[in-house]
Each structure stands twice: as C-alpha cells, then as structure tokens.
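Researcher: Please predict.
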Amino acid sequence: MNGMGEETGFEVVIVVPKRRRKEEGDEMEKNDCVEFLVRELKKAGLIVERFRGVPAEFLKVAAPMIILGHAAAELQLKKLTYIGMELQFEWDMVEAFVRQPDGSLFSWYERYSCFRHLLYGIVNKTDSNIALKYDDKEVNYEKNKSLLKMLEIEGVVKQVFPLHDEARRKQLLRKWALNWLDFTWQPIDEIYSYFGSKIATYFSFLGMYTRWLFFPAAFGLATQLVDFGRMQFLVLPSFFVFVISWAVFFFQFWKRKNSALLARWGINYSLHDCKEMASDANEFNYVDPVKNKFYSSRPIEKTSIQADEWCGILRKVKNNAIVVFGIICLQLPFELAYAHLYNITQIEVLRYLLTAAYLIAIQYYTRIGGKVAVSLIKCENNQGEDSSAASLVYKVFGLYFMQSYIGLFYHAVVYRNIASLRKLLIQRLIVSQVLENLIENSIPYVTYNYKKYMALHKKKYDVGSPMAKNVCLSTRVEKEYLKPSYSASIGANLEDGLFDDYLELALQFGMIMMFACAFPPIFCFATLNNLTEIRADALKLLAMLRRPVPRASATIGAWLNIFQFLIVMAICTNSLLLICLYDQEGKWRIEPGLAAILLIEHILLFVKFGFSHFVPEEPAWVRVNRLRNGAQARDLYSKQLLRSITKFEHKGD
C-alpha cells in the first residue's frame, strides 16, 4: 500500500534474453547492461523484481504513487478537478483532483503513460559516453540518450509490455467474460479502469448495439411467421422504414451515451482536441500562464500554410485514387468471377465450400492491400496518429466493402434472384462469422501453445539432465510473455486489435442493413452472433492475450462515419430490392410502385439527415456541465493571461 491508500503492484515487465550462466563466486560486472539498467530504475524510484524464467529473464517494475504523481506533473497531464475544470496535475495539490470510478487517482492510460515516461526518461546525464557490456557484446551508452531505447536497439531488451493484475483479471472473468446469464449487461466502469477508455467504449457500443438489435430481429421474425393477409404487400416497405429509422435513432442515442460516458469518466476533451491545442501552442507563440512567460508573436505566413494544406489534400486524393483504381481493376473482376461461379454451381455443399475457400483466399489479398494502404499513409501529411489511423480505416474498409458486398449486389441486380440472394446471405453470415470467431480465438491459443512448447523443448535440450523433464512455466509473467499481443491485422503500428473488432461489426451492420428487405430474419442471426461476441471478445482479452497497451481515444472515431455511410447505402439498396421484388412478383404495377418507393427513399434520407437536429448529441446535464466548466476555465485563464502580459510589460520598462 502507498501513502494514499492505493495498492500498487507490478504493472510493467521488461524482458531481456537469458545470458550464459556465470560460475559460482564470479562477481557481477559493474558495467553489465542489465545490472546497470536495474540500478538506474531503482535510482528513479521504481521497484524492480528480477527473476530468470524458462524463455527469458524478466524485470517486473512497480512504482509508488508519489513517483507516478511526480511523473504525471512532469508530463503536464490535465486532470479534472472538483470545481469542474481540467487543470495541469500537481502532486502538492493532489486532493483537488477527481478520482476515477474505482477510487484510484490515475486512469490506466495515465498510469501507463507515467511508466513509459519513467522508463524511457532515464538518460545519460554525464559528460561522456559509458561503456557497457552484455556477455561478450560491448554497448556504447551515449550521453543524453535514453538507456532503455538504446538497449532495445542493441537487442539487450527484447520487449516492454504491461502485466495483467491477476486479482482484477479473475474478478472480471467471473463477472463479465463467463457471466452468460446477463446477456448484454457489462461492468463498463470496471472495464474502463482495467483496460482504458478505448476498449471500454468498444464494449459499451457493442452492448448497446446488441440490445437495440432485438427490435428489428423481432420485427423481421414476425414478417416470416405472421400472415398479414391483404396487408402483406405493405410489410416489406414498413420493415424498410422501420429498419432505417431504427439505425438513425440508434446512432443518435449512441452519441448521447458516449457523451455521458466521457462525463462519467472525467474526460472533457477528446484526444484530437488535446493534440490540436498542443500543436497550436508549439506552432504559434503564446503567453504561458503557468510559467508567467510571454512569447512574442511571429508573423504567420498565409501562403506557405495554404500551400502545405493543399499539398496534403492532393496527396490524400492521389492515394485514395490509387486505392479505388486497385479495387476496380484488380478486386472487382475477382469478386465478379466468384459471384458467377457461385451462381452456376447447383450443389449446396459445393457452394458452402466455394464460399469458405473464397473467404480464406480473400484474406491474403486484403493483407496485401492493407500493406499498400499503410505505405500510402506514410506519404500523407496527417495531423497525428489518430488522423493516420482514420485514413487507414477508410482505405481498408473500401477493400472489405467490395469483397463483402459485390457478390450480393451481383445476385440482386444482374440476376434478380431473391431466393438465391437469401441463401447467399445466410451462408455469408454463418460462414464468415463462424470463420472469423474461429480464427480470432484459435490463433492466439495455438500461438501460445506453440511458443510454450518451443520454450520448454529448448530448455530441456539445453539442460540435458533428467531434472529437465520437469521444466514448466511456473509464473504468470512467463505465460503472458508467450501470449500474443492485442494488435491489428493491418497497420499494427497505427491501430490495436479493436480495428479488426470494429471492422467485423461494420461488415455485419452493412450486410444486415443493405439487404434487410431481401431476408428480414437476418437480424436474428446478427443478434445471436453479437451475444456470443461480447463474451468471446472479453474472454480473448482476459485469458488469451497480453494486457493491451491503453489508448486515449474514447469514441469510435472514423467507424462512426462508416456506419453512417452504410445507412445511406442501405436506403439505396433496399429501395432497389423493393423494386425488384414487387416487379418480379407482379403485386404492384411498376409505375405507382416505383413512385411510392422513391417517395419512401426521399423521406428516409430526410429522416437520416434531419433527425440529428431534433435530438441533441449530448444529454442536457452533460452540456450544462461542459459549458459551465468552459466558462470557468476561460475566466481563470483570461485573468492569468492579463497578469502575465502586465508583468512582462513592466519587466520590459
């Protein structure tokens, strides 16, 4: 326990390769790299526990709260105070800052940021380089260089990653991952405290989305089971209007819930806003009210700024054109060939096998496209990591959009075979969802067991004694080291594993929305899949993977724009499906039927773009608190700014 009543544990581990054993009686060399690193970590106030495991050597690191507090002050973290304002953190004023929902001072993202600052902030402050050794290798520790970064480059430090808290992990397993009876209920605040805001936001969105799916699922099931008699011809148009309205309402109320979550977690500004303010402070001169120092303005060159802006825009247009060209010229023929083969194949078993083979083959194509997208993003002038991640999302989703829906469009438009389209929807949803769940849950398990086998086999081979047969992984740190990390399948340096989870949700949403009128009960399949997805994803994070590195984002980001785009596409595709259905079955004359469908389409487009003006994106209490806090912050900083300018002018006189 620390002085503030908070329990501190080992939250980060540093992995170094195992060295050759030294003979008994040999002294550890003074300039040994690992020994030097341990001494420097302890000098920085960190608690270090070192032990030799089977696959490697581990340094578990913990930090007293006072050390984390001083690191937070050095990082100039902004935290919410009890007067409702976000101020720069000061350890001496710690009682003024609002606690997290679990009672801790710092969130998991803030604690991990402090750990990174402490670990990578150890630099050579001497006037000369320091010669270090690791086995027979000599390492030159240059002055003013980060020790840990240098050791990573030299291969002395293999990895640095966060550790699971075993007690809290088991508690979440019981209350969340293995608690199937609660359906969509989840301990969101506890997820936020343990994993951070980005993962908690994803599970909050997934839970709300699954709960709302029960409504179209019930309506869709009723369209198949209930005979509406003479009103049957109005069932599909009514379902069409209901589904689009449902989607519009859902995302508007999700924005309200997201705002409420941010307020409950004490997050007043998005990461994008914070980075913009920091960028502006660095780019243009200003008065620093904390240091009471005035920086004189320099003229802003309008021409150069506009030139940079338009160069960045043109680069994005060029890169997007490359992606679109690749999709049309390379992916589209492949997708149409698959759709044609599927249509001429008469045996259902062969169709399932063809779909499975197609889904496996397309994964390789998508990975190649993803690598191309990542290389294109590096050429763009994106403002920060979030902007680059959003650009990656748009480009990669374009690839998946084509591969997921072109075959369905082919059957709906070219053949107008609604029965075949329904079968294809069922096969796609079942095969793709089952295949995705098997891949994302089995690969981490297989990877871990393979690494475990190789580590134990190597240990037995190296030791070569009868006792080596009893070698096993005795600590949880060794097991976590062998587990795969929570990373994205594409662009791992820009996104974490949530990229694949959001992509799976977006593709499912597009499929059930754009072809809702073709097969209304498809919402039932999506509901059942998401009920299992909540627990499967939770189990994956808690049992199969390392503890993810926390990210500051607290919204679904670019994915919201993709979901909104899919709603507009759903209005167009379902209007086309209704035309095909009623023209084919002869229940309407095409002229009045077409006019009615076009009228419905225009009404739904109005609902889509007009509903946001009637329902605010944030609850009234959140908006009132935000405006009040903003007014207080402006008043405070205005007074400090005026005092700073006055002091500067007096010093100039």
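Model: The longest strand covers residues 47-52.
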